[in-house]
Design brief:
By secondary structure, this protein is α/β, with parallel strands linked by helices. The chain has a single domain, classed as Vaccinia Virus protein VP39 (Rossmann fold, 3-Layer(aba) Sandwich), CATH 3.40.50. It contains 13 helices and 7 strands. It has a 7-stranded mixed beta sheet. Helix 2 crosses helix 3. The protein starts with a helix and ends with a strand.
C-alpha cells in the first residue's frame, strides 16, 4: 500500500485507474465495450497504480460494469432527446470519441486544468464524434460551478448530468449542496451517478483508503437512505441498475461473489450490505 500512496499524487490520478480497466476490458475477446484510447491515457503509471492495489485488481468487474451501465444509460437518454451532456469530473473519459452519438450533441467536460490538459495532449490527433467542449473548473468552488450551470442551462433544452466516480469522494454536505445546485437550472433534467451503501463504503475504506487518503482522495459518501437521499433536494430515482448483477450476467464474478449476486436486488434504504447501484435520476 505504501507503494500505491507514493504513486497516487492527487484525486485526478484515480482517473488513471478507470482508464487502465477500460483498456484491459478492450483487450478481452468478448469485451462489454471498446475504448481504443484508454491504454494511451492510462500509460505505464496507470498500470503501476492498478497493480499496487490488489483489492482493485481483484474487483475489476466493478470498474468495467460501471462503465458499461453508464454507457447504456447515456445511449438511452440521448435517444430520448438529450441535446447536451455535462460530465462533471470527466477525468480521462473518452465517450465523446468512442460512442455512437449524434454529431450535433453538445458534450461538456468539466474538471481540473491538469487532467484536462493531459487528456488533450494525448488525444490531440483524435476527432470527437460530437461537439466537445472542455471547461477547467474546480467543482469544490460552489460559486464558480453555479455560474457554469446557469450558463450551460441557457444553451440547451434537455441536459443530462454525469458524475461517474465523483460523489463517493464528497462529504454528505458537499453532495447535498451539489444536488441542490444541479436542481436549479430547468434544463438540467437527468442525472446519472454511481452510489455506494454504508457497508460498501466501509469495505472501500478498509481496502482502498490506505492508498487514497494521503492524496486527498479518501472515500466518504455512502448514504444509508440509498437513492432516496436525493429526493428532498430535487432529484428522484427513475432506474437503478446493479453492477454486481450485471457482472454476474456476463460471468465476471468469482464463485463467492456469484453467490452474493443471487440475493434479491435492493434499491431502497441501505445498511451493512456492500451494495452499489448506477442510478438514473430525474428532476422532481
Amino acid at each position: 500500500m505504501a507503494q500505491a500512496e507514493s504513486l497516487i499524487r492527487n484525486i485526478s490520478d484515480t482517473a488513471l485507474l478507470a482508464a487502465v480497466y477500460r483498456a484491459r476490458e478492450t483487450d478481452r475477446q468478448h469485451a462489454l465495450f471498446r475504448d481504443p484510447f484508454a491504454g494511451r491515457l492510462a500509460g505505464k503509471r496507470g498500470d503501476q497504480i492498478a497493480d499496487s492495489i490488489p483489492f482493485s485488481n481483484q474487483n475489476t468487474w466493478a470498474w468495467v460494469t460501471r462503465t458499461y451501465i453508464f454507457d447504456r444509460f447515456i445511449a438511452e437518454q440521448c435517444q430520448q432527446g438529450v441535446d447536451m451532456v455535462v460530465n462533471l469530473a470527466a477525468g480521462l473519459d473518452t465517450r465523446p470519441y468512442r460512442m455512437l452519438l449524434r454529431a450535433a450533441l453538445q458534450w461538456i467536460e468539466v474538471d481540473l486544468p491538469d487532467i484536462l490538459s493531459y487528456k488533450e495532449e494525448i488525444l490531440a490527433d483524435e476527432k470527437p464524434v460530437c461537439v466537445l467542449e472542455r471547461v477547467r473548473l474546480d467543482l469544490s468552488d460552489a460559486t464558480a460551478r453555479r455560474e457554469l450551470f446557469t450558463r450551460l442551462g441557457r444553451r440547451a433544452g434537455k441536459i443530462l448530468i454525469l458524475t461517474e466516480g465523483l460523489i463517493v469522494y464528497f462529504s454528505a454536505a458537499q453532495v447535498r449542496a451539489l444536488t441542490q445546485d444541479l436542481a436549479a437550472p430547468p434544463a438540467f433534467q437527468g442525472w446519472i451517478l454511481d452510489l455506494a451503501s454504508p457497508g460498501l463504503l466501509r469495505l472501500l475504506k478498509k481496502n482502498m483508503n490506505p492508498s487514497l487518503s494521503e492524496s486527498g482522495s479518501a472515500v466518504q459518501f455512502g448514504p444509508a437512505e440509498g437513492p432516496e437521499f436525493f429526493v428532498p433536494y430535487g432529484w428522484g430515482p427513475v432506474d437503478v441498475r446493479s453492477p454486481l448483477k450485471t457482472a454476474a450476467r456476463f460471468k465476471r464474478l468469482s464463485f463467492g461473489m456469484q453467490l452474493l449476486s443471487l440475493l434479491p436486488q435492493s434499491n431502497g434504504r441501505q445498511g451493512s450490505r456492500p451494495w452499489s447501484g448506477i442510478c438514473l435520476f430525474a428532476k422532481l
